[in-house]
């Protein structure tokens, strides 16, 4: 399956929730499948915190398959023989869309001069992209985790722009525990002496701090069942313990691998900004404190999916959104799926999820 990679510059400044604006915004995106004559078959896929636009094509840095290649393609649940699929890198990220590593108006990288952004700001840039592509109304917006936050934000703030909203393993606001884990990661980055208040571009990046942040976050993506089943208390060398600080246990080695690999493809400042945007997200607070009011103008069909082993965004979070949608009179379906993988279940082989997605989009 071929993918088309593009970058567009939005025609004007992008207003931000914080009160300022970004003077020049580039949005990097990929498309799959053909847009039909009346432009009614477009699906916007919204990626998670550390995702990007390479949803079903090889990543240009790591060479690994796209993050949802099992879901997107000809004959797959998100069928590119039927749908025109768009996946854009969020602003604040580091794979082509404007972010902290981008050049500011003075020609130097923004670094920590980049303005604070929100989930709604990310979606505002997505809407600008849709305008540039001449797509007035989506067949569907689909997202898991942070992508689900974007899908909910689009439905709440631009209800006329989509006919269907599919939200997987997500939430309408972060809990104190979610915020605490993110702050642990941010502090690890800022404690790295190579961070230099965010002014590390052109020199050594704070890879040690970013790797620790990734390790801490990755624990929240998995379930205890998954970690125990895969690693247990198994040692790297089953015959000996080092009794030191090397990676004695297999789970330690796995986390270190996840951390070191992540630094090859992600920017530390982007991690700071995007995690902060997720922590600020509170859809009810944006609409006067009552979540149902966020969906008062929505005429889309909604589908929410949770996983019974996800303790990062447990089923109770999805039910909270479903109750609000019911109160607003929206058409909504909800399913909790059984899977052992934890939060990452939406990215892994869960055949029941394939059936839900294919059925809802069809």
Automatic annotation (TrEMBL):
Keywords: Acyltransferase, Amino-acid biosynthesis, Cytoplasm, Methionine biosynthesis, Transferase. SUPFAM superfamilies: alpha/beta-Hydrolases (SSF53474). Pathway: Amino-acid biosynthesis; L-methionine biosynthesis via de novo pathway; O-acetyl-L-homoserine from L-homoserine: step 1/1. Substrate binds at residues 214, 344. It catalyses: L-homoserine + acetyl-CoA = O-acetyl-L-homoserine + CoA. InterPro entries: AB_hydrolase_1, AB_hydrolase_fold, HAT_MetX-like. It holds the Pfam family Abhydrolase_1. It is an enzyme of class 2 (transferase). The active site is at residues 145, 310, 343. It comes from the Bacteria. One of its GO terms (biological process) is homoserine metabolic process. Gene3D superfamilies: 1.10.1740.110, alpha/beta hydrolase. Its main location: cytoplasm. Transfers an acetyl group from acetyl-CoA to L-homoserine, forming acetyl-L-homoserine. Belongs to the AB hydrolase superfamily. MetX family. Homodimer. This is Homoserine O-acetyltransferase. It comes from Erythrobacter aureus.
